[in-house]
Design a protein that fits this description.
186 residues; alpha/beta; Rossmann fold; 5-stranded parallel β-sheet; globular; binds guanosine-5'-monophosphate
Length: 186
C-alpha cells in the first residue's frame, strides 16, 4: 500500500483537530505534518514537534528555494508546510495536514495527489451551539467564524471528500477508510 497526503480543513469548532489527533494516536502509519512558522514558540511548544520555528530570513530563504507546498501569513507571521518534511515522511507513512481552504487548494496545485477532506458540522445551528458551549470566543467572533464557514462550504465541490462530523466515531471511521482507499490507489 502507498502512503497518502491528506489535507483536512473545516470551520473552527467542527472537531477536526480532535479527529486528526485521534487518527494519529490510533494508527501508527499516519503522522501529522509539522509546519514552519516565524512566530515565537509558546510555553511548552517544542521545535520540530509543534512547529519548526524559523527566523524571518530563514523562512524567506526557504520561500526562495521553493521549499513550501503552501504558505500564508497570519497575524503578521508566516506559516508554511515544508515540502521536504512531507516528501521525506511520505516514504514511510501517510501525512495529514490541518490547513485552511486556501492552503489546501495551493497544496493540490503543487501536489495533485493530495486528498482534500472537508469536515462539516451537521448544521450551522449545531456548530453555533458547539462554539458557544466551548466558551472561548465572543459572540462577535462566533458570527465571524460562521460567516467564514459559508465561504468554506461554498468551496466544498473542490474537496475530494466531505465528512459530516455528527457522530465522532462514525466520522473517524470515515476518515480512516478514506486514507485506506487512497493508499490502495498509490
Ligand atoms: P497558531 O499561531 O495559533 O499556531 O496558528 C495560527 C494560524 O496559522 C492558524 O489558523 C493555523 O491554522 C495557521 N497555520 C498553521 N500552520 C500552517 C501552515 O502550514 N500553513 C498555513 N497556510 N496556515 C497554517
Amino acid at each position: 500500500m502507498g502512503h497518502v497526503l491528506m489535507a483536512v480543513s473545516g470551520p473552527s469548532g467542527v472537531g477536526k483537530g480532535t479527529l486528526v489527533k485521534t487518527i494519529i494516536k490510533r494508527r501508527d502509519d499516519v503522522v501529522e505534518s509539522v509546519s514552519c512558522t516565524t512566530r515565537a514558540p509558546r510555553d511548552g511548544e517544542v521545535n520540530g514537534k509543534h512547529y519548526f520555528f524559523l527566523s524571518h530570513e530563514e523562512f524567506q530563504r526557504r520561500i526562495d528555494e521553493d521549499d513550501f507546498l503552501e504558505y500564508d501569513e497570519h497575524f503578521g507571521n508566516y506559516y508554511g508546510t515544508p515540502k521536504s518534511f512531507v516528501r521525506e515522511t511520505l516514504k514511510t507513512k501517510s501525512v495529514i495536514m490541518e490547513i485552511d481552504v486556501v492552503g489546501s487548494l495551493n497544496a493540490k496545485k503543487v501536489f495533485p495527489e493530495c486528498v482534500l477532506v472537508m469536515i462539516a458540522p451537521p448544521s450551522l445551528e449545531e456548530l453555533k451551539r458547539r462554539l458557544i458551549g466551548r466558551n472561548t470566543e465572543t459572540i462577535e467572533q462566533i458570527e465571524n467564524r460562521l460567516a467564514r464557514l459559508e465561504y468554506e462550504l461554498s468551496h466544498s465541490e473542490v474537496y475530494d471528500h466531505v465528512i459530516i462530523n455528527d457522530d465522532f466515531e462514525t466520522a473517524l471511521a470515515e476518515m480512516s477508510r478514506i486514507l485506506d482507499e487512497h493508499a490502495r490507489e498509490e
